[in-house]
């Protein structure tokens, strides 16, 4: 019996349980005309009939579905165990590698994932696999059905007028809510755990000091067997990331974003604002791969021509400048909306106070509003930097792969995210230092963006409190 | 009052506002005011200009990708080296008969006989047109018909813009003979990735995107809404709740590529889920989208005034009933807006999907969420790496499709926000 | 009460609209330097709105529209020749809630003189700051901490700082919009004392909720109701012998 069918069946049982439990509860309920009549034997229902229905349905669905979930994970082991009991398995080689290769081939054929076996020894095991599969899946399905029925029966016996079905159902709903919010923690733990685990494996091969302070990055040489020494110095990557994301991009994004926010909040007429704000939102909604394509195809060649025109002849077509400029444009809406928020949270009375002194609007903005909003703006810029250094597609498509330590914006630099993508592309074994280096880079990126965010949120929060 | 009468030194003359110096000063202050205002306007116009430049360059480069150059070729079926009985194509087994024919050879021969050496400029996939024409109307097998066959990528480029000299010359000859035409390239919308730019389409990647988004939505929406409800309505103020909040706020700011690393390490290497599949892509993007939905959801829930909760509690509703009967329906438009924005972001996301192997070359649309698939943004990325010049306009065309979807999603979100935004 | 000099500011038939809604209806009033003028009336009667038309602060509200004539020394402040920046320097304003800038005490006072270029040297600025703080009655309290932030002062001190800030540009008129409503009684007393001392040097108009305050600080009182000027006269007359029933009802506490 396949999985979809059994789940559908159990869901159907759940529906039946809901309907019949509700009907039973309704019969228990006193008729409307009798509610006031306390002498009758039928007391008031504690909970609405539909809660009794939900109670029964939960008892039908819960245990059965949990069992199925566990069974789906346990079954492959059981199946393999049974196959190994089969006389045909005695012919398997003892060597663990080829043994498991043959087994998985047989399993794939038995499940219909593959057509023919590469290793003829697998053929003998197909039939045992099929029968074991049938045996255990049928067994699992039967057990799940039994559980569903048993759960339903138990719930049914408990339907009485004074039974607190609503309380029970609500407790389940509450646990579901709690569980949903715990997923955030699980994800965070998953990220930290997986990054840390793989990074530790990497640092068992490469010294963390070499990684964090080394000046030479050439993982290819490590992969080609020249050893891990001097291959994983990530400083050029860190520099490239900062150069593009925190310097060039911010040169574009901070002035343009800040001035846009000022214009929108202080000068633009409502009609103009109604058009310009969504325009910025569109700019923020353009996917990064589009920016990357644009940077690589349109901006980068222009930058190279421009460099040649001003007399720089060794300019790269994958310049830091092209990637940084486009990334800056991508960040403009972000800076602008953060600045917008900060300027708007400066109390109106400040602005009035300054205007009433005879200051012009621009004097008010420059000398009162901006200084007052500065912490919020700084927080926003930090968030923008954290976003820029974590941005991947623009740099993958428009920045280069050469790990240069250079100040020349027309030269090619590489970044942390570019290298993560580069290292994990293609088929490598998962244990090589080259592959694991991606996780170490990921860990650094995660920690840095996390710190930036925490600091930025603190700054913004304290600033908000100052004006409340 | 503690201040003594001001000494004479502190006495000041009233300001002479009419004086020349003051007039000049005020004029220069107004000039600087105008300058500042103009700088602000220039800043925002630069953003608008960049957006316009981007849109126009994508449109001008990509609209051509929806059309193709066709060459009129006379195919003389009776003289062709094939023997098919038209009747055999009208019943059972037509597919078998059709697949037994060497259409490629037939097409090449017809092109050569009709166009001479310029017959080499038809696309490698042109035989599909011939086959489909026969399939649609077997009667043409007895006559000689003119079919419009797609031109090769080189000729297509030459027709639309600047191509290689040989292709330009060939196109000039064919155009002079009146054999070329432009037609809408429906194949672009219905086929999948390929090696020849004349044959590629976005349907495979689009379907991959749909499947991935379905998984993302099914996972992140319920979880996000439930978590938002819990945090906003029931969570006790304690360390656990603080941890959950901190996690969610930080997850919303974690770079997307980190989610890709998580997906690679956990979903592929620990749980052994299928590589390159929409299932894993959807799971990864769901983790990324969930915090966005939680944050939007909390804001929407927060905006429901407490008086509504008090009213419901006051007539004896349980806390769960209050939330599910009153708060949630009122907050739903806000939650929907946040969800659409989160989904639009996920739809445009590329980097995490590269990590979990959705960058493979996949020439047929995925059948289900466990089949290898790719998505639109990744397809754009893959095509942008292609050397052949014919891929340039295909990339831009795919970008147009992606942008259309994102823009319409965002417009729906803005519409919802404006329509249902309530001021309490 | 006689008026030997022509009025500093005078308003004739002023109407103010917010969009479609009329907030001020046909108000005419004169303000002079020798007297403190108090605007009283129930909340929402338009007294603050009218005050804000006197230095064109209503310009910052997009939907506001002012009709009629308001003159400063005989010059129409709504005429195209009048410069708002100059006008606001000549007609200073103190707000309901103290709103010192998040700068040092010194910079708060120096803000106006700096933007208007009233001091050419640092020494001049120092003199202006000291004299303004002295006149605001704040010098002795803050002379040793001029570099501290203006927002670190107490509420009453902040409000006196704001008055000092307004004085620093040597205005001709000072408008005060309920300057004591956010302050405790002791701080209020200090501000009232300050208003007494400033009288004669500046034309002072004060909007207040508090009728006792109006009686204490002002020589002339205007009673506003529903956007109209009901009665305007010497304070003692308004409080002891009002001509209009509405004024009487208000000052005896029938409504408000």
Shape of chain C: globular
- SSE order of chain A: HHHHHHHHHHHHHHHH
Named at the architecture level, the CATH assignment of the largest domain in chain A is Orthogonal Bundle
Summarize model confidence as the mean pLDDT of chain C: 89
Strand content of chain A: under 5%
What is the average per-residue confidence, as pLDDT of chain A, rounded to a whole number? 83
Distance between the termini of chain A: 63 Å
Which structural category fits the helices and strands of chain C? alpha/beta
Ranges of chain C where pLDDT stays below 50 over 5 or more residues in a row are none
Which radius of gyration of chain C do the C-alpha atoms yield? 18 Å
CATH class of chain C: Alpha Beta
Q: And the CATH topology of the largest domain in chain A?
A: MetI-like fold
Given the structure, what is the number of helices of chain C?
A: 10
Q: Number of domains in the coordinates of chain A?
A: 2
Q: Write down how many β-strands of chain A occur, each being a DSSP E stretch of 2 or more residues.
A: 0
CATH topology descriptor of chain C: Rossmann fold
What percent strand of chain C? Answer: 25-35%
The CATH homology group name of chain C? P-loop containing nucleotide triphosphate hydrolases
Regarding quaternary structure, how should these chains be classified?
heterotrimer
Category by helix and strand content of chain A: mainly alpha
User: How many distinct helices of chain A?
Assistant: 16
């Amino acid at each position: 019996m396949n999985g979809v069918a059994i789940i559908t069946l159990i869901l159907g049982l759940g529906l039946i349980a809901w309907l019949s439990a509700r009907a039973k509860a309704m019969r228990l309920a006193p008729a409307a005309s009798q509610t006031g009549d306390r002498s009758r034997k039928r007391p008031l229902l504690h909970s609405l009939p539909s809660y009794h229905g939900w109670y029964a349905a939960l008892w039908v669905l819960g245990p059965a579905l949990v069992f199925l979930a566990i069974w789906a994970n346990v079954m492959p082991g059981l199946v393999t165990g049974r196959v190994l009991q089969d006389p045909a398995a005695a012919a398997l080689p003892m060597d663990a590698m080829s043994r498991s290769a043959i087994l998985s081939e047989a399993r794939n054929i038995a499940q219909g994932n593959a057509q023919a076996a590469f290793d003829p020894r697998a053929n003998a095991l197909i039939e045992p696999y099929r029968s074991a599969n049938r045996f255990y899946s049928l067994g699992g399905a039967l057990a799940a059905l039994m559980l569903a029925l048993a759960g339903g029966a138990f719930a049914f016996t408990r339907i009485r007028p004074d039974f607190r079905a609503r309380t029970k159902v609500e407790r389940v709903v509450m646990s579901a809510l709690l569980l949903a919010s715990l997923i955030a923690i699980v994800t965070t733990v998953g990220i930290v755990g997986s990054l840390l685990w793989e990074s530790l494996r990497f640092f068992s091969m490469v010294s963390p000091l070499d990684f964090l302070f080394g000046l030479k990055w050439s993982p290819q040489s490590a992969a080609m067997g020249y050893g891990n020494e001097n291959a994983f110095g990530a400083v050029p990557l860190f520099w490239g990331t900062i150069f593009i994301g925190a310097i060039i991009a911010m040169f574009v994004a901070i002035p343009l974003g800040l001035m846009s926010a000022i214009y929108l909040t202080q000068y633009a007429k409502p009609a103009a604002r109604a058009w310009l704000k969504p325009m910025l939102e569109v700019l923020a909604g353009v996917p990064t791969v589009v920016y990357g394509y644009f940077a690589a195809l349109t901006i980068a060649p222009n930058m190279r021509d421009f460099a040649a025109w001003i007399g720089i002849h060794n300019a790269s077509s994958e310049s830091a400048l092209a990637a940084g400029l486009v990334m800056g444009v991508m960040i403009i809406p972000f800076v602008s909306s953060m600045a917008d928020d900060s300027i708007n949270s400066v109390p109106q009375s400040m602005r009035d106070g300054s205007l009433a002194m005879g200051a012009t609007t621009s004097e008010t903005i420059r000398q009162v509003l901006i200084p007052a909003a500065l912490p919020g703006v700084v927080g926003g810029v930090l968030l923008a930097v954290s976003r820029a250094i974590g941005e991947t597609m623009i740099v993958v498509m428009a920045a280069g792969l050469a790990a240069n330590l250079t100040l020349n914006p027309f030269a090619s630099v590489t970044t942390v995210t570019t290298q993560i993508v580069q290292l994990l592309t293609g088929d490598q074994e998962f244990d090589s230092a080259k592959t694991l280096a991606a996780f170490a880079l990921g860990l650094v990126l995660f920690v840095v963006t996390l710190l930036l965010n925490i600091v930025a949120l603190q700054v913004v929060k304290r600033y908000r409190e100052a004006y409340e | 009052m503690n201040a003594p009468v001001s000494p004479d030194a502190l006495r000041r003359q009233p300001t002479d506002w009419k004086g020349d110096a003051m007039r000049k000063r005020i004029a220069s202050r107004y000039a600087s005011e105008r300058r500042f205002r103009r700088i602000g306007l220039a800043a925002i116009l630069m953003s608008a200009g960049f957006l316009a430049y981007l849109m126009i360059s994508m449109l001008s480069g990509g609209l051509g990708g929806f059309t193709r150059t066709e060459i009129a070729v006379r195919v003389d079926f009776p003289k062709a080296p094939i023997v098919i009985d038209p009747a055999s194509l009208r019943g059972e087994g037509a597919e078998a008969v059709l697949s037994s024919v060497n259409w490629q050879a037939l097409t090449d021969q017809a092109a050569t006989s009709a166009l001479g050496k310029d017959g080499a400029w038809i696309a490698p996939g042109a035989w599909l047109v011939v086959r489909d024409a026969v399939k649609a109307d077997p009667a043409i097998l007895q006559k000689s018909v003119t079919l419009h066959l797609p031109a090769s990528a080189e000729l297509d480029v030459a027709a639309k813009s600047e191509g290689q000299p040989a292709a330009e010359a060939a196109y000039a000859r064919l155009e002079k003979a009146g054999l070329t035409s432009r037609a809408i390239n429906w194949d672009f919308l219905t086929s999948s990735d390929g090696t020849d730019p004349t044959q590629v389409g976005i349907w495979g990647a689009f379907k991959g995107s749909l499947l991935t988004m379905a998984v993302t939505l099914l996972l992140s929406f319920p979880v996000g809404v439930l978590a938002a409800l819990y945090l906003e309505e029931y969570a006790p103020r304690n360390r656990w709740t603080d941890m959950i909040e901190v996690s969610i706020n930080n997850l919303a700011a974690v770079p997307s590529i980190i989610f890709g690393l998580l997906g690679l390490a956990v979903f592929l290497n620990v749980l052994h889920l299928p590589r390159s599949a929409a299932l894993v892509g959807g799971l990864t993007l769901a983790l990324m989208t969930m915090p966005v939905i939680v944050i939007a959801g909390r804001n929407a829930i927060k905006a429901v005034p407490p008086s509504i909760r008090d009213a419901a509690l006051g007539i004896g509703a349980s806390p769960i009933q209050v939330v599910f009967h009153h708060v949630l329906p009122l907050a739903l438009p806000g939650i929907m807006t946040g969800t659409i924005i989160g989904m639009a972001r996920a739809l445009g996301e590329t980097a995490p999907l590269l990590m979990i192997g959705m960058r493979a070359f996949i020439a047929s649309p995925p059948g289900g969420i466990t089949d290898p698939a790719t998505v639109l943004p990744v397809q754009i990325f893959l095509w942008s790496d292609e050397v052949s010049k014919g891929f340039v306009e295909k990339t831009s065309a795919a970008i147009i499709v992606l942008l259309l979807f994102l823009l319409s999603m965002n417009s729906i979100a803005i519409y919802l926000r404006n329509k249902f935004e309530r001021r309490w | 009460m006689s008026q030997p000099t022509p009025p500093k500011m005078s308003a004739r038939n002023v109407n103010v609209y917010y969009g479609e809604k009329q907030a001020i209806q046909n108000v005419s009033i004169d303000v002079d330097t020798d007297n403190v003028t108090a605007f009283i009336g129930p909340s929402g009667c338009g007294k603050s709105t009218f005050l804000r038309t006197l230095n064109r602060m209503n310009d910052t509200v997009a939907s506001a529209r002012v009709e009629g004539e308001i003159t400063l020394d005989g010059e129409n402040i709504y005429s195209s020749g009048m410069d708002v920046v100059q006008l606001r320097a000549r007609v200073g304003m103190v707000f309901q809630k103290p709103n010192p800038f998040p700068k040092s005490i010194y910079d708060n006072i120096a803000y106006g003189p700096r933007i208007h270029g009233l001091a050419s040297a640092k020494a001049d600025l120092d003199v202006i700051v000291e004299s303004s703080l002295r006149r605001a009655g704040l010098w002795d309290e803050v002379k040793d901490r001029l570099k501290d932030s203006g927002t670190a002062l107490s509420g009453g001190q902040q409000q006196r700082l704001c008055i000092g800030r307004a004085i620093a540009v040597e205005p001709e008129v000072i408008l005060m919009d309920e300057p004591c409503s956010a302050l405790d009684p002791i701080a209020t007393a200090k501000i009232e004392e300050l208003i007494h001392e400033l009288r004669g040097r500046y034309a002072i108009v004060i909007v207040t909720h508090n009728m006792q305050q109006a009686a204490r600080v002002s020589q002339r009182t205007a009673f506003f109701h529903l956007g109209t000027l009901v009665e305007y006269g010497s304070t003692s007359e308004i409080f002891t012998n009002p001509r209009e029933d509405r004024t009487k009802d208000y000052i005896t506490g029938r409504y408000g």
